[in-house]
Amino acid sequence: MPAIVVALTVLAMFALGYRYYSSYLTRKVFALDAAFVTPAHTMGDGIDFVPTNKHVLFGHHFTSVAGAAPIVGPSIAVFWGWGPALAWVVLGTIFAAGVHDFGSIVVSVRHRAKSIGTLASDVINKRARALFLLIIFFLLTLVNAVFAVVIGNLFVANPGAVLPILLEIPLAIGIGQYIYRTRTPALIPSIVGVVVLYLTIPLGQLVPISVAPIAELLGVEPERNVWVVLLFAYTFIAARLPVWMLLQPRDYINSHQLFIALGVILLGIGVGMNTIVAPVLNDTPEGSPSWFPFLFITIACGAISGFHSLVSSGTTSKQIDKDTDARYVGYMGSLGEGSLAMGAILACTAGVAATQVEWNALYADFSTASGGATGNFVAGIASFAGNLGVPIALGTIFAAVVVISFAATTMDTGVRLQRYIVQEIAEVAGARRLSRNATAATTVAVVVPMAMALLPGGGDAGYTFGVLWQLFGTTNQLTAGLALAVIAVWVTRNGRNAVAVLVPLVFLLVMTSWALILNLVRFVGEGEWVLVPLDAIIFVLAVWLMVEAATALRSARRAAATGSPDPSVAQAGPGDGRGAGPDERER
Q: Which of 337, 283, 332 lies closest to 83 in space, CA to CA?
């Protein structure tokens, strides 16, 4: 199968999804209204609540939700064949991720930009809030710990990528200062920033940076642990800076990299006429996990991911300038991530190997596929760039810079979100000093995942990646289910059809529960006594979620049928400075 045909077909389907399906969601499900005054205006503080141009905000949102996950997941999932992997990316992006990401922003904006965990209390009940906050804290701890390990490993494997990534930080701060103080549109400065970033790639090749001498001096093993500590020290500072100073300009610079990477993929496979050498449906070795249900857990980001609801309601909703911007930022952001996932699939099926025999060696078993996922993506992109005359060494650094940039941005946002969650948990627990002290909350948000990332054990992959990461997929998709449950109840209470939300919700809950049961049996058989109780707890929380969501949805339907007021409308009192939303006028 010619790779270019697949790529153009997928992009055309995404375009149709945005044109028609997101329009349906905008009008009939979420009822957006440009007259609604968003929290970015009514609660503006110049730090977290900042009205932001939708194109700039798209850059922040996309690069925050993207990270390395839409690369790693699809790069592993092609083990089952490129057919099911690509089908889930396309259908999941259009009909699940688009609804989930878009809806999380809308509901948060209508509730004073509250996080999805707090929204669970407002929309469902207080028990759901406590449940959600605990799951979110565990999920964010895993995400921040693993991304630190991923970036550390990439820095060790690609020392030529270190200098460009380091130089991007002062570059982004300079651009942020320039845009903020001159009120200049961000497009041209950010494009200049991307050009400067890529001009430093040859410099990075000439001046590779390694922390091996520091690790040896301190007696630290493996070398990546030095990078882990440095990364968390950096994110502590980044999480305390106003979003316009570093997060927004860096994210906007990185959003351009999506289009550049897609351009390299499309032009590369067009010029090189690469064909997909992997099988449509792979004949996997005996003992391999079944693609049904594990494909839908392995590919989370790139199809639908609960982490996105944390970004949507944690940072994005605080920066929405107009209510109607949620469609572009949320739904288009999910399409951007789906496009990146498609690129990962093509890189690992049409770029990394020239024949099926070579491909089979890279995907001999599930363990080999998992361990080589990021490396296969980098090699595949370097191969596509090579078709355009770019030396393989430079192409490899380029691909590494793209992966690290996305992962670092997600880690920046993840630590900031973790700080919000720590403060919310402290508020629920009555620890007011912690809930009101952003510095103390940021310290907790940094120390906990850093400790997890540095834990010994788990082989070469480390304890977090080698052991606890096996729970990430199910925890992440359970979070997505929770978010969809909140959205479904809110939509139903406002008298609108929630089928578009309920279908992905039911599908996710079934897949997650199925995977949790299969994993629990496997963990018991393998004597993984750390994972057995954690898996069991997550399963209990999943069942609990189903009961709470079903009860709240039934209540919402009764309320909608009898014309009872929507709780979200009741919160919009005359003194809160908000404009009348469509929900208020429709009644």
A: 283
User: Which tokens hold the place of 357?
Assistant: 């025999």
Measured between alpha carbons, how far is 18 from 525 in angstroms, rounded to an integer? 45
Secondary structure E strands in 123-205: none
Among 329, 70, 15, 59, which Cα is nearest to 194's?
59
Q: How many CA atoms lie within 13 A of 313 on its CB side?
A: 31
Domain ranges for the chain, please list them: 3-275+286-427+434-565
Taking the complete model, does pTM exceed 0.85, yes or no?
A: yes
Q: Is the dihedral of CA 292, 294, 297, 300 positive or negative?
A: negative
Q: Which CATH superfamily is domain 3-275+286-427+434-565 in?
A: Amino acid/polyamine transporter I (1.20.1740.10)
Q: Identify the three-state secondary structure at position 275.
A: strand
- pLDDT tens for 12-43 read 999 999 999 999 999 999 999 999 999 999 99
> What does the block give as tokens for 4?
């270019």
Digit-coded pLDDT (tens) for 467-523: 777 788 888 998 898 899 999 999 998 999 999 999 999 999 899 999 999 999 999
Report the alpha-carbon distance of residue 137 to residue 567 in Å, rounded. Answer: 26
- 373 contacts 72 by C-beta, under 8 angstroms: yes
